[in-house]
Amino acid sequence: MTNSTFSRPHGFYDRTAAESAAAAHIAAQLQNTLARFGYQRLETPFVEYADLFLTKSGDDAVNRLFTFELYGRLLCLRSEFTPSAARMYVERYQHAPKPLRWQFAGEVFRYETPQRNHSRQFTMVGTELIGAAGASADAETLGMAMHALQQLGLQGLRLVIGHVGLLAQLIEPFNLDRRLRRFVLRQVENLRRPGRGRAYVEAQLAKLYGDLPDSEPSSAFPAEALAADSDKLGRALQLLLESADLGTTGVGRSSTDIAKRLLTKQRRASQHADLMQALDFLEQLCALDGAPAQVLPALERLIAPGQTIGRALFDELRA
Description:
mainly alpha, three-stranded mixed β-sheet, three-stranded antiparallel β-sheet, globular, HisRS/HisZ, aa-tRNA-synth_II, Aminoacyl-transfer RNA synthetases class-II family profile domain-containing protein
């Protein structure tokens, strides 16, 4: 009989002795392969300041972090290794000879909806290559990853290569703000994954951005005015609130905070149509499937005229 008072939290797991030994063996094999490629193992803390992860992934990332407050600072359980590696580089390795080849292994935590084969706690083995760039650095990382998996005895592997820089350029014409642009860039997997698709993406959008209306902004603040002179509009809102003697609210928000919030909500409303068009475009992109000879010409047709950077990145991918 299970005592529910002491049950395991949903989305987390125990490992038996056999399971623990198997996981440790796999991780050790991967780490040994990475070491043969010259990647040194470093360790980072389980707990970091949440700002470190929000800087990399945007403010909405707080919804995917396990966070808690200590002495007025927001901390979190690590959800990946890259932000911690960046912090370590800035603090201790800026002047070290390049390139730096690091590997990391350990538990990471993400506050996601638990489902089959996808928990809130998992073991990650990863690398960072700092100070090297270009196709040769990409080839090293990809080749090393395939070799490490083959060393585990896996066969019939299929390598899927993406280009987030190209994708970011392709959605540039939709003029999304930084947070919405990051949201869109993260939806490729969800649009492709069976059982998710567009409905799931829009549900996630509603959950993360509940202040994003499903209509155009009011005519009092047309989109053109918001885009052209948001600083002046923000100051005008602040002056209006101050003149109404609303310097602070009952929860301690200043007129400046309220003005910024109102302006952000209005700007988001002005972007609703652009966001829907961006998701339409992303669906077209995700529908591309097949051999490079068929997919690359179709991808080229999706590049808008005048996108010189996007064109250059596409040429790099095709080469």
